[in-house]
Amino acid sequence: MIESNPPLQQHYGRLLQESGKGHRQNRSCFYDHTHHHHHPVIKECELPLIDLEGLKSCDERERLACSAAICRAASEWGFFQVINHGIDPELLRKMRREQVMLFDMPFEKKATCGLLNNSYRWGTPTATRPSQFSWSEAFHISLAKISEPACWGEFSSLREVINEFATAMLRLSRLLAGVLAENLGNPKGAVEEVCDESTCFLRLNHYLARPKSEEETFGLVPHTDSDFLTILYQDHVGGLQLMKDSKWVAVKPNPDALIVNIGDLFQAWSKDEYKSVEHKVMANNEMERYSIAYFLCPSYDTLIGSCTEPSIYRKFTFGEYRNQIQDDVKKFGHKLGLSRFLQETDPLK
């Protein structure tokens, strides 16, 4: 058999074999309980579409209506899409071209060359069963660590484009965070002042076409994002699904729009006014898919509180939150997230 780039089928096949030996009834299995598979998928739908030109309008009513639409979507959906967002379409095309060239490298080179500070990931190393495995590869890049020319190898043109792309995404994410903060009676800079170009992350995703012989497979397992908000640039190939009213909703791709979703930190800070919604990507058995996600994050020592008191969640640093997630994934196979930080109860106590 020809080995794929990366060797996803080999790893996934091993998990299938091991899971076929019978599930042991342990605590990890109890918390996994494959709840992700039991929700039906409803037909493909379009996310709320918001024209950001409204924020620049001379008409105050138009500005307020645009802001209200952003906040309503953040509360009701946790997801929305934006057009007229101010990011040059040519920059997006250049970013996509560089991304495709990057993933076209041989697997061994991607895995061993140290490119982008060893940020290459593939599959799910912590997976113990097929339901925890992601049929994809990615470069998950800390933007604090991309200043050194040595980390780019032969991809010097990628360095220039990523820096331009990250700057544009930071500007857009701060604009949206300001609207969302102001809606809750806070200064526009309440969130953006703790997030800058050195604390955010960029994830370049490549979802490989899965073999038709395999069962329906996650391109990215169900999860919520751990940041304030995420901006996603995706191609025309579908696959993104989100949880809405206890059903998985397939998101119809819109090539002219960027997708925005709320992260855990914004949900905690807003006292659950804005929703960090569970989402996933399903692997396509015919086409590969590319996307780029920009994560608006604070520094690891930033204390996450509440926009007003009393708070629903106890205060925690971003670093503490990430460490708890990593511990939970190792123990239970998936993230428990904000439920760990509720004021009154802990899900495991």
TrEMBL record:
Select a single GO molecular function from the record's annotations and give it.
Answer: metal ion binding
Q: Tell me the enzyme class.
A: oxidoreductase
Which keywords has UniProt assigned to this entry?
A: Dioxygenase, Iron, Metal-binding, Oxidoreductase
Q: What is its EC number?
A: 1.14.11.13
- Gene3D superfamilies, sorted: B-lactam Antibiotic, Isopenicillin N Synthase, Chain
Q: Which GO terms describe its biological process?
A: gibberellin metabolic process
Q: Where does the Fe2OG dioxygenase domain start and stop, copy by copy?
A: 196-298
A Pfam family reported for this protein in Swiss-Prot or TrEMBL? DIOX_N
Metal-binding listed as a keyword: yes
The record's SUPFAM superfamilies line, in alphabetical order, gives: Clavaminate synthase-like
Q: Please name the InterPro entries in this protein's record.
A: DIOX_N, IPNS-like_FE2OG_OXY, IPNS-like_sf, Iron_ascorbate_oxido_reductase, Oxoglu/Fe-dep_dioxygenase_dom
- PROSITE patterns documented for this protein: FE2OG_OXY (PS51471)
Keyword Iron listed? The answer is yes
Per its record, the protein catalyses:
gibberellin A1 + 2-oxoglutarate + O2 = gibberellin A8 + succinate + CO2
Concerning its family, UniProt says:
Belongs to the iron/ascorbate-dependent oxidoreductase family. GA2OX subfamily.
The protein's name is: gibberellin 2beta-dioxygenase
Source species of the chain: Acacia crassicarpa (northern wattle)
